[in-house]
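Two folds, back to back.
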Amino acid sequence: MLTILGYARDEAMRTGSYGIGADHIVLGLLRHRDNNACRALAACGIDVQALKEAVDARVFADRAVPWEERVRVRPTRAAAALLGVAAYEMLKYGPPEILSSHLLLALMRSEKGAAVDFLRQAGLDYDQIYALMRDHHFVLPRQERQAPLPKVEDLLGPLGEQLTNLFGSVQAKTNFYS
């Protein structure tokens, strides 16, 4: 996951954006390639290169963000919302970490974005992606829970902290190489 978020930041910079949006996370996911989300997209007949080109066409600016300004590149609310929904998907299906498959499921719950528009135009929806992932064991099947789910209030603090730490880890990892 850290690799995908690092790539998302790189993609935001490459496309000339100081805000890492949900589509930049998708570009990071596609750039990583060796993940269950890309395998699921391929199994659905999606040309990931065509998806990348469609997203690039919508988010590309005239010039890239200069490397020395990388510390100014931050996640947008759309990226935070996508990661929040991915965390919800992780809570539903496990394992106890956000994976690429959770990101793809979260994306399919989105209403806006170049990537989700492309996938919907290809005829895909959340249920189709989930069924394919379940059948190929890219996510754990839905299970009856023995214990009730925690209250939202109990999750918001730790979840927000986890997302902050996740982006902080990407920042620290990227700064390590500078």
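---
second:
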Amino acid sequence: MITIQKMNQTHVPAVAALEAVCFSDPWSERSVASELSNPLSLWLVAMDGDTLAGYIGSQSVMGESDMMNVAVNPDYRKQGVGTKLIAALVEALAQTGNHCLTLEVRASNSPAICLYEKLGFACVGRRPNYYRNPKEDALIMRKEWNG
């Protein structure tokens, strides 16, 4: 059974390892660990017992949040883990007085875009050449709620 919880130091190595599996320009273990001491950050993990099924991270300033990273272990994809992580993050952010969540997604990442749209995100802009490895535009997506 998948449980969602706040990331802590014991999760950092697995989160950094999943970063390396999922992204062409992954965060280092040190960068992930630094989020634990950042008062602007909220990172959640999806755990299946002792196995990391996925994670999500955000930073918030003045009621607005930015999703930094989200990843699901390939063995857990298509099982609702991403949906659970995003829903849990939105709920946690709303409880702390935030009123919106913004993210960037590769313009070619149709599965992620469909998931975000299903969860109430709308495309609000485009960042040319935002990604590297390979170079690609990002779509800016945003979800708002009443705080």
